[in-house]
Amino acid sequence: MAGRNFLFIPGPTNVPDRVQSAMIGAMEDHRSSQFPELAHAVLGGLKKVFKTAQGTPIVFPATGTGGWEATLTNLLSPGELVLAARHGQFSHNWIEMVKRLGFQAEVVDCAWGEGAPVERFLEILEKDQAHAIKAVLTTHNETSTGVVSDVAAVRRALDAAQHPALLLVDAVSSLASIDVRFDEWGIDGCVAASQKGLMLPAGLGIVCVSPKALAAQEKSTQPRYFYDFGNMMRSNATGYFPYTPALTLLRGLRESLSMIEEEGLDNVFQRHRRLATGVRAAIVDGWQLGLCAKAPKWYSDTVSAIVVPEGIDSGRIIDIAFRRYNLSLGTGLAKVAGKVFRIAHIGDLNELMLLGALGGAEMAMLDAGMTIEPGSGVAAAQNYWRGHEAAPQKTSARNEAGVAAQKSPRR
User: How far apart are the first and last CA of the chain?
Assistant: First the structure.
């Protein structure tokens, strides 16, 4: 098929040309005296994205799922109890991992489309006078439903209950796209991955841990080897890794962190909010459809899950979009399979790229038998974006050099 695939799934996301170029090159000696320059640049850059001065980033050659496992096996001991909410496929998966690894879980089941049940968490934590609960698991951005949870409120619940449990957060589809404040929110373990807001291929599982978490790690009796924080931190302190790292991805990560710093992290968040709001205008005002997220307070700025009418199979829309229009949309998972399709608005994106996705989705919906007005979603998004200015961008030395080159006389 001519042209390039329009990739609008919530991971992997589009990889910028700069990042792709940074990953191309000969392999290097990861034990050389020069290698620590790369390791220190990456680990220092991640601290800025996590908004932490106290936390310690750790990078594994893995995925977000590996980050989940690393966090659980380092911070808990066999049989210990965690508190978690199940309100989507990925919060469910994390709970299933807890059980398979031999830990216990007290699960609060919520409607798919809602966020973390803060008031219910508070009730349970207040009753746990023996402090049997050792950690509270919170999925910041539930990718399957397009729902963002209030992590700061979960921290306030822990504090109000005067409960010592660790706060563990899945930020896989939010880090570098939706504001994550590791220190301010009192997060103890935060899990991310390379293929979402960090704009890389899959292959890095990224964790950030607090001093409190590291104290728990010292007491943990859970067996582990590959995912051991201690081994990683001892090697990282000297600029190395305990085993062969994902070299090309680390080079790409250094470049993506530079891009984020050049744009300005808060500007990145504003861009995602603006793009997401335009997409939501297309869905609600243009197509007259609803979101899986049940209230605006839960709307995600990285992915929207669109509910299709009764009698329409969302899987058919996704298949038509891919086969006929070379557009990749996110599928509905588990409870919402066949009921929703997802448009991701995360990472290296702008308005025109999203207009292509909205236009393709409109054609696929029409082909699948849905009744919508052609062009209605595109028009609604255009009207929103035209009426709301983008955030001013930081001027980097690289951008200043480019502007100067454009202004210089050419021969």
Answer: 40
